[in-house]
Amino acid sequence: MKNLLKSTAFLAVLFSFSIMGCQNDNSGEDLSKLTPIAKPITTTCLIQNDDPSNDWQEECFKNIDVQKLASFIFDGIYAGKFTAYDYVMEKPMTIEEVKALEAKPEYNRKLIGKALFTEDWYIDKDKLQMVKKVNSIMLAYQIISKSGEVQGHKSGVLIYLNGTAPK
Q1: For the purposes of burial, counting CB atoms within 10 Å of the CB of 83, is it exposed (0-12), middle (13-18) or buried (19 or more)?
Q2: Which domain holds residue 30?
Q3: Please, which residues have CB within 8 angstroms of residue 153's CB and are 6 or more apart in sequence?
Q4: What's the alpha-carbon Rg for the chain, to the nearest Å?
Q5: For 44, how many CA atoms within 13 A lie in the half-sphere containing its CB?
Q6: pLDDT, mean of residues 55-73
Q7: Among 30, 67, 110, 129, which one is least packed by beta carbons within 10 Å?
Q8: Is the CB of residue 36 less than 8 Å from the CB of residue 131?
Q9: Does residue 115 carry a pLDDT above 50?
């Protein structure tokens, strides 16, 4: 048990250091002066704990506000600032289609548990920093079994940022 705590503490410190040198591209920094290391990369991120009995996951997710992320995306879609895409069909969705999707119980915003990001990653060798530019976000919803356990996730809407939407 003591070794598990030490390992967990070490991983937490290591993770903290890795995040401190990483920032999103919100500074208006000229990305052409940075060194690209992944352009693009697709990453998935669990954003809601699938297992509330897992204390480590509870700790990891305590500071994320999934509903703010969902509101940012859906408010932008409904205001016409973002075009929603059907992730599976790879086609634009109308606002009416998005509303119909959200009306289904299995697409309740409280079930958003994962996000898929397409990003460009850069490093700044002088500042010893990493910059991530998010180009798309897809929200995925938990699939809940009859016994109440999360069995997996299914895709929801996809939005593009920074002018990266398909033409």
Answers
A1: middle
A2: 24-160
A3: 113, 114, 140, 141, 142, 143
A4: 18
A5: 11
A6: 94
A7: 30
A8: no
A9: yes
Instruction: Tell whether 166 is covered by a domain.
Output: no
Q: Does residue 51 lie within any of the structural domains? A: yes
In Å, the largest CA–CA distance within the chain is: 55
- Distances in whole angstroms, Cα of residue 48 to Cα of each of 131, 132, 138, 142, 164: 24, 22, 14, 9, 27
Number of domains in the chain: 1
Each residue of 11-62: pLDDT tens digit? 343 333 333 334 444 456 688 889 999 999 999 999 999 888 899 988 998 9
Residue carrying the six token digits 């289609």: 97
Give the per-residue pLDDT at 52. Answer: 83
Which residues touch 22 (CB under 8 Å, ≥6 apart)? 129, 130, 131, 132
Asked if the structure places residue 6 within a domain, the reply is no
